[in-house]
Specification:
The protein is of the alpha/beta class. It has six helices and seven strands. The strands form two sheets. The chain has a five-stranded parallel beta sheet, with helices on both faces. Strands 4-5 form a two-stranded antiparallel ribbon. Strand 1 (2-7), helix 1 and strand 2 (32-37) form a beta-alpha-beta unit. Helix 1 (15-26) runs parallel beside helix 6 (176-192). It is globular and about 55 Å long.
């Protein structure tokens, strides 16, 4: 089984990175794990030329956007970890998705978009500086969830579980870390339980 990890946090030692590391450590070694740290990638923004439609590789010079597209096509499970910025994902993650619309859906001029990633599953980790339950407001984690869900849904990808981290600035205090790492262990367990997909 191929597992794609997308870390959209700018903090290499922050709560998102910590949770993703914990999930990875619990995944069965028989699986192939590929990780993209979005803030360390070289990705040019989409120019809206539409020359990638309906299913052609982006014509921009080869960069991390192309590498992500290739990995996405060959993955079974996608795990996205991202902070919440203004009820949305950070700009670098949105830019990566913008560059890969044809990797998610087949679009001919004037036709209804068709999902091309059916059968793939996703797990989300979303952090917010707001305390619970305010982290679940549309201006916080709920907005980020909705926007990422829209993108994944366009490709036919089903979200299995979401971890919403509240009060992320205090993640490493008051035993909050252990609470979320237990949730990370449950994600690893769910992935390892997908025996029908193991290759």
């Amino acid at each position: 089984m191929n597992i794609l990890i997308i870390n959209a946090s700018p903090k290499p030692k922050g709560c998102i990175s910590k949770i993703l590391d914990r999930i990875i450590s619990g995944i069965d070694l028989k699986n192939l794990v590929i990780r993209f740290d979005v803030y360390r990638m070289n990705v040019s923004p989409c120019r809206g030329c539409l020359k990638c439609r309906p299913a052609v590789e982006c014509i921009l010079s080869h960069d991390g956007g192309h590498d992500f597209s290739a990995a996405l096509k060959n993955t079974d499970i996608i795990i996205i970890g991202t902070p919440n910025y203004w009820g949305n994902m950070p700009g670098p993650l949105k830019m990566l998705f913008d560059r890969n619309v044809p990797a998610f859906e087949y679009i001919e001029s004037g036709s209804v978009p068709l999902p091309v990633l059916k059968g793939k599953k996703a797990f989300l980790i979303i952090s917010s500086g707001a305390k619970f339950p305010f982290n679940l407001l549309p201006s916080q984690g709920a907005g980020t969830y909705k926007n990422i869900k829209n993108i994944l849904h366009s490709g036919g990808i089903k979200i299995i579980k979401t971890i919403q981290v509240a009060d992320a600035n205090r993640f490493f205090t008051n035993n909050k870390e252990s609470k979320y790492l237990k949730q990370a262990d449950k994600v690893s367990g769910k992935i390892n339980a997908l025996k029908l997909w193991n290759k």
